[in-house]
Structures are given as C-alpha cells and as structure tokens.
Amino acid sequence: MLFSDILGQSHIKSHLTKSVDNGRIAHAQLFVGPEGSGTLPMAIAYAQYILCSNDSGENINGNEACNLKFKNISHPDLHFAFPVTTNDKVKRHPVSSHFLEEWRELLTKQPYGNLFDWYKLLGVDNKQAQIGVDESVDIVKALTLKAYEGGYKVMVIWMAEKMNIAAANKLLKLIEEPPNKTIFILIAEDEEQIISTIKSRCQILHFPPLAENDIKAALVKNYGLEDAAATKIAHQANGNYNRACDLVYQDSEDLQFETWFIFWVRSAFKAKGNKGAILDLIKWSEDIAKTGRETQKQFLNFCLDFFRQALLLNYNASDLVYMDIKTEKFKLENFAPFIHNNNILEISDELQDAIYHIERNGNSKIILTDLSIKLTRLIHKKAI
C-alpha cells in the first residue's frame, strides 16, 4: 500500500518513515484515531515500509517481490489479529487465522471500514466479537518463530480495545520484551478501553479526523464526483472517509437510523398525556431490539450525534452542523430548540448508559423501553 494512497495525515506519514530511515522503530506502538481516519491503512503501509526496505518516504525502490506480496496482503511476516466470534463457518474457538479470506476482502474493498462493516461481512451482527485468549496463544506462537524472510516481523492488532483481560495479560510480557526485530502495532478508536498496563508499554500516536479537503479530493478522484457533490458529502462525513464512501453509494445505515430516530422523538413528544404514544414507544423498542446488538449500538451513537447537532444549531453554531435530513416534514431547525443546556447532559448520559448495557448483553427490549420513557420526560424540559 502506497503512503500516497492514504488520505491526509502527512505529518504522521513523515514521522513514521523518518523513524524507519533513522533506525528508531519503537517495538510497540498504539495508533489511536476515530473511525475513517486511516489508522489501519497507515499501519499496513508502515509495515510494508519496514519489511520491504523501501526508502524516500514511499513504498517503492525496495524489495519489489516483497511489495507485490503486500499488494495481495499476503506477506508471511505480516500478521493480523482482530475481533472474531463464532459464525456459520467457525463453530468454536474462533481466531483471526480462520477469517483471513474475509479480512483480505475487507482490506481490499473497505480499508477505512469500521467494526460494523466487519461484523456484516462475517454475518455476526447479533454477537459481540472479541480478541480472546485463544487469539493470544496464536500470536505468541506466530511471533516466536523466525521471520520468513529473515528480517522484521510485524503484528497488527486491529480494534485492540476489544481485547479481553485474559488475552491482554497473556500478551503483556511479549509486548514489553518482544523477540528481536518484532514490532507490535495496536490500532484503537477508544484508548480508554485498553488496559493501562498494555497502553503504558506502547508509543502512542494520535490520528485526527480527516480534513474536508482531503475527503473531497479523494471522492473526486475515486468516484468521479462533481466538485459540488463531493464538497457536500465531505462536509457530511465529518472527517470520516468510511462514512463518505457510504454516502456516495447511498448505502449508509444512517438513512434507516434517521427514520427510527424521527419516529422515536415524535412519539416521545406525543407521549405527554397520551397513552397511545407510550404503546408506540414500546412497539418501537421491540422492533429495534430485534436487530443485532452492533446495529443497536450504532443507532444509539447516531442518536447521540443527532442530539449534538440539534444543540449546536440551537446555539447558533450552524457552521459545525453537517447532518442533511432526508425525511420530509422534519426540520432540524424546528427540533433544535428542544435540545438545550437543561437536558442535553441527561440525554447524553442515558444514551451512553444504554450503549454500555447493550454491549454487556443486557435485555435490549427493557433497556430501550426504559430509555424511551426517560426521553419523554427529558424532551419536555424547559431551557434555563
């Protein structure tokens, strides 16, 4: 993967390539960045730069056979670990090596993809994948062997925050004192979920969201969009190239989420003194509970974004509002006055609590019904 194919992040590219050129490669690094910021493509390009002895800040002029292996994501000294769970193909003891075909498909089609895209590809939307102790055993085995080509070995651990405590403890000593010429690259969206003993042993590199101009240029180049259309999508993407790609294909789950959200808040408004609306909220909770847990979490995060956008609009920060509402007869301008300083913190806390409990396999129907009833009170609070 060429560094020039990775959007933006020029200061990070420069830092990584110079560290290799100067022979100062940290043995354990943690790439932290929001979805769609390019942490995974950057890790692969960085690994290629190391393993293929490339120079001049780009993945060329080195070992061409090695570069060709990276083009197919098949270099024997590049190892991956990522969240997995059982599915129709693997019934027990799932580990990353069982899903390398699907993983290469994700990297080929959606290198900026998120965990939700990965779950959809595996067909496990209703399960919680993790990096477990079986995975850590495989990692130890892979890294204790000699490098196939006699140089470095690189282990990329994607979504490292999904590593459970048992796996993290098993890898702790290996990350602290890895075998010679062994490099760990951990990738995470939320570093707070990674245990401190792992985090303290890594050199941390933070990736900012992508600039609108970088996303716009990529949309024009890769999808042949008109300048105006690319500008609009880049603004809506809010620094997330994966979301921008979904919007190009009109394949974004946000369209469905918007429909669910608008029905939800309308029912919550009507519920004051209206028993029929409460029944609508209960039915809504039942319908959402039938979807997969990852879908539910994605939807509740979408709700958080929607409320924040309404708050920004209410306080005249319209330059920061990027949502483009598709539903007829629903205007963000009309909804915004109901989200204010006297209810936004409580709404945010309730949504985050719901995400927390769903992630820990709580009963979705009960969690969502409770959240809905609380919203009927909070949405009617008056601003101070």
Description:
With 384 residues, this protein is α/β, with parallel strands linked by helices. 52% of the residues lie in helices and 7% in strands. It contains 17 helices and five strands. Helix 9 crosses helix 10 and helix 16 packs antiparallel against helix 17. The longest helix is centred in the last third of the chain and has 22 residues. It is globular, with a radius of gyration of 23 Å.
Strand order of the largest sheet: 2-3-4-1-5
Gross geometry: globular
* Tally of helical runs: 17
Number of strands: 5
The helix/strand series, from N terminus to C terminus, equals HEHHEHHHEHEHEHHHHHHHHH
Secondary-structure-derived class: alpha/beta
Q: Which percent range describes the beta-strand content?
A: 5-15%
The end-to-end span amounts to: 53 Å
Rg, nearest Å: 23 Å
Unreliably modeled segments: none
Helix content: 40-55%
Q: What is the average of the pLDDT values?
A: 88
Largest sheet: 5 strands, parallel
Task: From the structure above, extract its key features.
384 residues; alpha/beta; 5-stranded parallel sheet
Secondary structure layout:
Layout: H1 10-21, E1 28-32, H2 39-51, H3 64-71, E2 78-81, H4 100-109, H5 115-122, H6 133-144, E3 153-157, H7 165-176, E4 182-188, H8 196-199, E5 203-206, H9 212-223, H10 227-237, H11 241-249, H12 254-270, H13 275-289, H14 293-314, H15 332-335, H16 344-359, H17 364-378
Helix pairs in contact: 1-2, 6-7, 9-10, 10-11, 12-13, 12-17, 13-17, 14-16, 16-17
